Write a sequence for this structure.
């Protein structure tokens, strides 16, 4: 597009805007080193000799929420469910597109419908049903997430499979490959861009999801990071703002590391996911 | 392949289908049924016809939350899209390929709603305490607090989609318009905006649905305070299910109404997308 006359002025403008954008996060980081009394009193001051508590807030926050256990379960749920969704829905999508009979078509329509339904519609019955089936564990959630999250994944995958020429798999068949070998050796490698897109969208959803695990997990034994953060708020008592700040920072660190490591893929995934969705 | 593949359906679609039945179909069908019954446990229900729906529309808190949510969605949709488009436009135009800014603005999307809510609780309450107020002082405070939070979170997301749209506008079309003496403003309104209309449709509906479905940020920032006046729909439904024994059927009826609203938005999006495609 066309050049403007003063790119430098815009660079300055966007730099200032970026600083403002990061400020809320920096504010939490600063306050995580202050005593809880001083946080509530005035969050905008830097730590002083009087208000500085070192890593005290972090220690207390980790203890109160059992943070590292929650981190572990969040990781188990996110990685496991994403892998299961990628594997199962990519297989389904290929089958649906290539077979295209009445069953395949109605299956596809049901997945499309799932895409529209908000979680509140099923939350009460789902939490009852998963409890009945004993799926209230991180591993049970893999299945629940595969079921509730199938819509978007199938939708993006079927869109992609339609663009793959059938000559590829016909050739594999000529060479004596069965459907399973054809899928894993020929189709799956071609689907890699769509797999990255779906994988990123799922990870962003699963890692941050609060309500589904809150209603289905057996909370006595398992918590995820969002649940742990919310637990700190507790009932109606006063919140330990110090511990809260520490836990908030700890909750953001893995996300920011993940983002810095793979932001190119993330942004590309979001764009292609949105345009197709 | 055409001949043997259908027989392999059990393997290719079986696992997804079983999970789909457990995680979606059965709870959904049961949910629709329960909206017509009175129950406290799902195994003991009494058919009450449309009584739950009648009670939903007699619930003043719900009706308040309905227009509160609608206002919230419309305001956030407007602000987010105008801001995201403006930032994207200037980033593409003024500072070519500036990935640093793009990365910074996008970052809040990776942080979960609960964490975001508490980050902004600290900041907003800190600012409001200068006037001896807090975010739960009134529903108006909560409203604008959530608007600010939502904008901060989503402008970057929509901006990324707009940048992709803007970058696909062909250079030579704009050059040709310039040669013909078109001003920057004319180029923006007559060429660029019509060409990125697909992105505008996607982003508008995405922000609209996100506004209607918002839950986590609402829970963390205001939790409905004061006295359920800053409750968005999703939180209102949650509180009906789990806050008032005997109202589970009403909660389920609210959920069905919620589904109808969200589905209507999706159908409208579908309509606009199709109409555009048939024009092109």
């Amino acid at each position: 597009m066309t050049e403007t006359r003063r790119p430098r002025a815009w660079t300055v403008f966007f730099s200032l805007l970026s600083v403002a954008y990061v400020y809320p996060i920096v504010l939490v980081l600063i306050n995580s080193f202050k005593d809880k009394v001083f946080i509530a009193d005035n969050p905008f001051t830097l730590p002083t000799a009087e208000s500085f508590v070192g890593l005290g807030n972090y220690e207390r926050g980790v203890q109160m929420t059992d943070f590292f256990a929650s981190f572990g379960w969040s990781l188990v749920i996110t990685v496991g469910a994403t892998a299961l969704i990628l594997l199962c829905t990519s297989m389904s999508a290929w089958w649906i597109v290539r077979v295209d009979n009445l069953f395949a078509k109605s299956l596809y329509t049901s997945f499309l419908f799932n895409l529209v339904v908000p979680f509140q519609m099923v939350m009460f019955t789902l939490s009852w049903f998963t409890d009945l089936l004993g799926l209230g564990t991180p591993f049970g959630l893999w299945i629940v997430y595969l079921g509730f999250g199938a819509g978007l994944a199938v939708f993006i995958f079927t869109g992609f499979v339609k663009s793959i020429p059938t000559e590829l798999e016909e050739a594999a068949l000529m060479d004596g490959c069965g459907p399973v070998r054809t899928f894993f050796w020929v189709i799956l490698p071609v689907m890699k861009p769509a797999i990255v897109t779906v994988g990123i969208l799922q990870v962003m959803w699963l890692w941050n999801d609060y309500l589904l695990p809150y209603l289905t997990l057996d909370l006595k034994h398992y918590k995820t990071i969002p649940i742990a953060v919310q637990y700190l708020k507790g009932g109606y008592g006063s919140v330990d703002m110090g511990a809260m700040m520490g836990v908030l920072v700890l909750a953001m660190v893995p996300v920011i590391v993940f983002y810095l490591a793979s932001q190119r893929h993330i942004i590309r995934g979001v764009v292609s996911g949105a345009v197709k969705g | 392949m055409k001949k043997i593949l259908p027989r392999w359906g059990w393997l290719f679609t079986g696992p997804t289908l079983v999970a789909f039945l457990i995680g979606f179909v059965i709870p959904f069908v049961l949910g629709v049924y329960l909206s017509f019954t009175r129950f406290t446990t799902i195994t003991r229900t009494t058919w009450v016809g449309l009584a739950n729906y009648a009670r939903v529309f007699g619930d003043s808190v719900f009706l308040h939350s309905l227009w509160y949510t609608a206002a919230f969605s419309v305001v956030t949709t407007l602000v987010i899209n105008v801001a995201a488009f403006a930032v994207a436009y200037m980033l593409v135009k003024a500072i070519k390929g500036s990935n640093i800014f793009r990365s910074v603005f996008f970052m809040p999307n990776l942080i979960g709603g609960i964490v975001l809510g508490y980050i902004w609780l600290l900041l907003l309450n800190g600012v409001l305490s200068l006037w001896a107020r807090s975010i739960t002082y009134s529903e108006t405070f909560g409203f604008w607090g959530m608007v600010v939070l939502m904008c901060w979170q989503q402008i970057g997301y929509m901006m990324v989609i707009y940048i992709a749209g803007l970058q696909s506008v062909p250079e030579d079309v704009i050059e040709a318009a310039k040669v013909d003496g078109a001003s920057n403003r004319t180029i923006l309104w007559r060429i660029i905006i019509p060409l990125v209309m697909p992105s505008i449709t996607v982003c508008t509906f995405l922000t609209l649905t996100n506004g209607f479905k918002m839950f986590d940020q609402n829970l963390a920032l205001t939790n409905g305070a004061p006295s359920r006046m800053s409750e968005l729909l999703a939180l209102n439904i949650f509180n009906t299910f789990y806050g008032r024994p005997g109202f589970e059927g009403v909660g389920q009826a609210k959920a069905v109404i919620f589904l109808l609203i969200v589905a209507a938005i999706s159908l409208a999006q579908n309509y606009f997308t199709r109409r555009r495609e048939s024009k092109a």
